[in-house]
Structures are given as structure tokens and as C-alpha cells.
Amino acid sequence: MLARLRENLSTVIRGKEEAINQLLVALLADGHVLIEDVPGTGKTTLAKALAVSLAARFSRIQFTPDLLPTDIVGGMIYSAANGSFTFRPGPIFAHIVLADEINRASPRTQSALLEAMGERQVTTEGETRPMSLPFLVLATQNPVEYNGTYPLPEAQLDRFCLRLSLGYPDHAHELQMLNDQTSVRPLDALQPVMDTDALAQVQRAVREVGVEASVLDYIVRLVARTRQDARLRLGASPRGSLDLRRCAQAAAFLAGRDAVRPDDVQNQAVPVLAHRLMADVKARHSGLTGEAVVREVLRTEPVPA
Questions:
Q1: Of 135, 170, 231, 233, which has the fewest Cβ atoms less than 10 A away?
Q2: 59: how many CB neighbours lie within 10 A of its CB?
Q3: Alpha-carbon radius of gyration of the chain
Q4: Collapsing DSSP states into helix, strand and coil, what is residue 192?
């Protein structure tokens, strides 16, 4: 089923096998994804293709400066027929939620996602309502446009399991994309290859992938190094350690193995940790990035045998 899911996504997004693999890693690790890229590279199409392939409930929220928290989580609606209030769920109550251009909404509105992303529940009017499971938030933002945008708060960034980018297709794949859409969009021809119940079973199987004590120690050492770097005002959190372990388990599972190897951790470290790191003012102005810090840590930290 996972091979068919990968094939489905590859027919819609051409030439982006690595990005698709990272999306599958996050999906199996039960984590949320931040997609940073310029407009027109297929971010929305990828999210829709995933929802169709899983026969999952899909919702899209276009984030704008005037968006309110109730536009996301829902609110109480008055019924004149019986004089009572009933809760009308917002678009957050879906299996796959596309938060398009998430950084265009105010921090107050962005915070409406925090509880749902972190705890798979929403509390409104004093009542806690569970989310449908599986639950995945795919958020997009344009990294080169800053007018009318708000930086994502650290607490929001930390709830994204990993960050990925699609990038422009090469010449051959862009030509293939043009030929694919001569008469019909590939997205319109997609068929489900698994359902949400099957996905939940696979997610449970991923948690059973073994991680030796030495590999767990390696994960903790990598994350601790980011907290000790004097150039950073914020290192990776314990949630980052958990996400790195889960993504390494998912990567091993996709590779057909029942145990995590150190290279699984190394391959997932940049997507999982880099977006959580905050450089201080001096380091940021000198061009230091979270990705550079993680790669430096990977080069210098001893790898378990």
C-alpha cells in the first residue's frame, strides 16, 4: 500500500521523490509538515493528492490577516427554532488540513492550531472535543515574501515534525508535467490506495520499530549540542528529540527494516531539527542558518558503531 501511495503522489508531483519520501516519513511518524517554497511548485496539489490517496477528509484554510480563530476551530451557533446554541465544527476537524500561507494570519489566529496540533483536541466554550485520527496539518509559507506576513512563533514551529521544500522541477520533469496535463489533470484521475484505518495500523507498526540504546543516546547528544551552541538563542526542544526518533523509525520502516540505524537519524536530522533553531541577532545577520548548525553537529558528533 505504501508503494502504491508513493506512486500516486509521484504521478502528480513529478521528479520530487525525496520530498515525497519526507512527506511519507512525517505521515508514518504521525507528525505535521511545514512546506516552505515559492508559489506554483505544487504544495497544494501535493496535499490534495495525499488526501485523495488515503480517502481522507480534507479541508483547506486560506490564512489571511483578517482570519479569526473561530474560522479555524468553529464556534457556537444560535438556533432560533429551539432557542439553543450548538457547536459548528470548523475546518480543523478533518484528517488532512492544508493551512495555506500560514504566516499571513496574525499570531492570535495561528495559536488556534496549537492545541489541535500538539494534543489532537480542541477546547472551545469550556468543552474539549477530540480530533479525527489520523490528523495531519500541512502548512505552507513563501520564504521570499515578507509583506503582510507574521513570523511563525517558536511554539508553532516546534509543533511541526519536519520542514521540507519541493523546489522547481528540472527540464525533463517540467516537460513531462506539461504533457501530463494536456487533456486532464493527473490529480483528477487519482484513486484511493488505502484508507485512514489502514494508515492508523501502519502508524502503530512504525512505533514498534526497534531503537537501540546507543542510537537513542546519539539522538539526545545531537539535540543537546544545539542547546549548547552560543550562536543560538534557542536550541531544539525535547519534542524535537521525540520527533527525530519517530521519523528515524518511519524511515527505517519505509526501507523495510525493523530497527533504526544511525544513518536513519542522520538523514532525518536536518528536516526535523533545523526549523526549530533560532540564531541570535549577530549570527543571523552573518548568514547562519539552522540547517548549517545541524550539519556541523552531524559532522563533529561521534556516531555509534
A1: 170
A2: 17
A3: 20
A4: coil
Q: What are phi and psi of 9, to 5 degrees?
A: -65, -35
Please work out, in degrees rounded to the nearest 5, the angle formed at the alpha carbon of residue 236 by the alpha carbons of 163 and 24. 30
Tell me the residue length of the chain.
305
For the chain, strand residue ranges (E) read 32-36, 58-62, 74-79, 84-89, 96-100, 121-124, 127-130, 136-141, 160-164, 232-234, 278-279
**Confidence check: pLDDT of 75 > 80:** yes
Within 80-159, strands assigned E span 84-89, 96-100, 121-124, 127-130, 136-141
> 226: helix, coil or strand?
helix
Provide the terminal-to-terminal Cα distance of the chain, rounded to the nearest Å: 33
Strand-pairing partners, residue 128, are 123
Closest to 158 in 3D by CA, of 277, 35, 30? 277
Q: pTM of the predicted model, to two decimals?
A: 0.91
Percent of residues, the chain, with pLDDT higher than 70: 99
* Helix, coil or strand: residue 142: coil
Taking the mean position of all CA atoms in its chain, how far away is CA 171?
Answer: 28
CB 236 within 8 Å of CB 223 = yes
Q: What domains can be seen in the chain, in order of their start residue? A: 2-203 (3.40.50.300), 207-300 (1.10.8.80)
| 33 vs 45, higher pLDDT | 33
Q: Which amino acid is at 177?
A: M
Contacts of 219 (CB under 8 A, 6+ apart): 241, 244, 245, 248, 265
219 membership: H or E segment, kind and range: helix 213-228
How many CB atoms sit inside 10 A of residue 296's CB? 14
* Residue 236 pLDDT: 94
**pLDDT the model gives residue 82:** 81
